Automatic annotation (TrEMBL):
Record-linked SUPFAM superfamilies: ALDH-like (SSF53720)
Entry annotated with the keyword Oxidoreductase: yes
EC nos: 1.2.1.27
A Pfam family assignment: Aldedh
Keyword annotations of the record: NAD, Oxidoreductase
Top-rank lineage group of the source organism: Bacteria
Start and end residues of each Aldehyde dehydrogenase domain: 22-479
One Gene Ontology term of the molecular function aspect: oxidoreductase activity
Record lineage: Bacteria, Bacillati, Actinomycetota, Actinomycetes, Sporichthyales
UniProt KW Chloroplast keyword: no
The name this protein goes by in its record: methylmalonate-semialdehyde dehydrogenase (CoA acylating)
Length: 499
């Protein structure tokens, strides 16, 4: 038995030296073994981190765009060079298979690449001669210290939706990672240091509600970017804004995939399996409700079941298709939804409750599960399950399918499968969801577009990354200037108009 590693904060360019009053267990989900103990910050530790970030902002906020971009390029290079190491850290604490962990790092890298273009992204506007001898121009300035609170399911990518842009724009950052898989953030902190980022610009503070509340209420924290479950997202939004902060809080999801009768069913079956069971369904863009229109259901369920029979569940380091769930508690919760669906009268077509696995018996295993004849009043449909459970809902028409998606409280992602361009176009226009896929199951936008849902999937008005990200991490200022020519205008107490 190896001793669990101590995982502590990263403050002011170095590992935190102090002792922790409280810690949390970090386990390898594929074995159940205790691999680490993560320090939980007190509000005093958070104060220390915010003070370091505030001090660093005094310089970093004024550092030239070219110098900031140079550090970003160096970070991008190191991250790319060491992405396999980061992926291995993610798999060891989250459980997702290695290829999936690598995919997560790659999507994060894309945001770093986007942020490398910060000199272009921060260009303002200029209007010459708005009035005689008067010019107006706009500039965007950094906010100061910004907080980022992330969920367990993407320990590298989700923080990277935010911090590359925040740092490139001149802010200094405190990341509060999920306590379930905290090590990725520390690895990233080391890369930043190697890339030449000054101490205090990127800090990692671990912990639970105590750390989150300290960030949300701290007078020197100017904004909070949160990703996690809806209940906490709402709490973070309300508490952060009540304390005068700019907040973007991305919440949970229940993503529907609508399949119309004219769809290519092989393509739809592949998509449903990939999007339903990739990362064991622990993705905010996972498909969890398959809405079959007309006579699509029987053949599609058959095709999906065939494909599910080929999936290998097991340790993510052994080339399996699907890894374990993140914790035992979460695995048991997901399992209880399958029990509830069965008790409610749904048909369990493929049952993952006693899976055959290529892994240790102590892992948090649950096999892919397909449930048919689900109705909209069942908890397998209403709730975000966040596991490898795909529910099939049968409906008669496009209109009923659309209404169902629009009536659901979540609105993160959705997909439609059809060969009818008119139907797809109508869906894109009518559906009340933030990210839409047309014959694409996980419509995760590219870094230069913005990511985020509607309704209970997002609180606040800024989505992540892309131009909305640049906007979120900067404040606009408009300057009206006149350089005397020297024809003085004289006294005029009227409201300024154009002359
Ligand atoms: P979570 O809400 O439990 O935790 C998210 C963060 O909040 C963590 O850092 C955690 O430490 C902190 N937290 C937990 N409880 C808290 C409390 N009572 N007070 C203050 N802070 C608290 O979410 P999770 O289980 O880590 O992640 C899964 C959830 O995240 C799912 O609902 C998923 O849909 C969502 N998610 C959404 C998106 C999106 O883009 N909308 C992306 C990824 C994940």
């Amino acid at each position: 038995m190896t001793e669990p590693t101590r995982i502590s904060h990263w403050i002011d360019g170095k590992p935190f030296g102090g002792v922790a009053e409280r810690t949390g267990e970090v386990r390898d989900p594929a074995t159940g073994a205790l691999s680490g103990r993560v320090d939980f910050a007190t509000s005093e530790v958070m104060d220390e981190a915010v003070a370091a970030a505030k001090a660093a902002f005094a310089e970093w906020g004024k550092t030239s765009l070219t110098k900031r971009a140079t550090v970003l390029f160096a970070f991008r290079h190191l991250l790319n060079e060491r992405k396999e190491e980061l992926a291995a850290i993610i798999t060891a604490e989250h459980g997702k298979v290695l290829s999936d962990a690598l995919g997560e790092v790659t999507r994060g890298l894309e945001v770093v690449e986007f942020a490398c273009g910060i000199p272009h992204l921060l260009k303002g506007g200029y209007s010459e001669g708005v009035s005689t001898g008067v010019d107006v121009y706009s500039i965007r300035q950094p906010l100061g210290v910004v907080g980022i609170i992330s969920p367990f399911n993407f320990p590298a990518m989700v923080p990277m939706w935010f911090f590359p842009i925040a740092i490139a724009a001149g802010n200094t950052v405190i990341v509060k990672p999920s306590e379930k898989d905290p090590s990725a953030a520390n690895f990233i902190a080391q890369l930043w240091a190697e890339a030449g980022l000054p101490a205090g610009v990127f800090n990692v503070v671990h912990g639970d509600k105590v750390a989150v509340d300290s960030l949300l209420t701290h007078k020197d924290v100017k904004s909070v970017s949160f990703v996690g479950s809806t209940a906490i997202a709402k709490y973070v939004y309300e508490t952060g804004t009540a304390h005068g902060k700019r907040v973007q809080a991305l919440g949970g999801a229940k993503n529907h995939m609508v399949v119309l009768p004219d769809a290519d069913l092989d393509l739809a079956a592949d998509a449903a399996v990939n999007a339903g069971f990739g990362s064991a369904g622990e993705r905010c863009m996972a498909i969890s409700a398959l809405v079959c229109v007309g006579d699509v259901a029987d053949p599609l369920v058959a095709k999906i079941s065939e494909r599910m029979a080929t999936l290998r569940t097991g340790d993510g380091r052994r080339g399996s298709d699907m890894g374990p769930l993140v914790t035992e508690v979460h695995r048991d919760k997901v399992k209880s939804y399958i029990d509830a669906g069965e008790a409610d009268g749904a048909t369990i077509v493929v049952d993952g409750r006693n899976p055959e696995v290529d892994g240790e018996p102590g892992g948090y295993w649950l096999g892919p599960t397909l449930i048919d004849n689900v109705t909209t009043d069942m908890s397998v449909y209403t709730d975000e399950i966040f596991g490898p459970v795909l529910s099939v809902v049968r409906v008669d028409s496009y209109d009923v399918a659309l209404q169902m998606v629009n009536d659901h409280p979540y609105g993160n992602g959705t997909a439609i499968f059809t060969n009818d361009g008119g139907a797809a176009r109508r869906y894109q226009n009518e559906v009340e969801v933030g990210m839409v896929g047309i014959n694409v199951p996980i419509p995760v936008p590219m870094a230069y577009y913005s990511f985020g849902g509607w309704k209970s999937s997002l609180f606040g008005d800024s989505h992540a990354h892309g131009t909305e990200g640049v906007h979120f991490f900067t404040r606009g200022k408009v300057v009206t200037s006149r350089w005397l020519d020297p024809s003085h205008g004289g006294i005029n107490l009227g409201f300024p108009t154009h002359g």
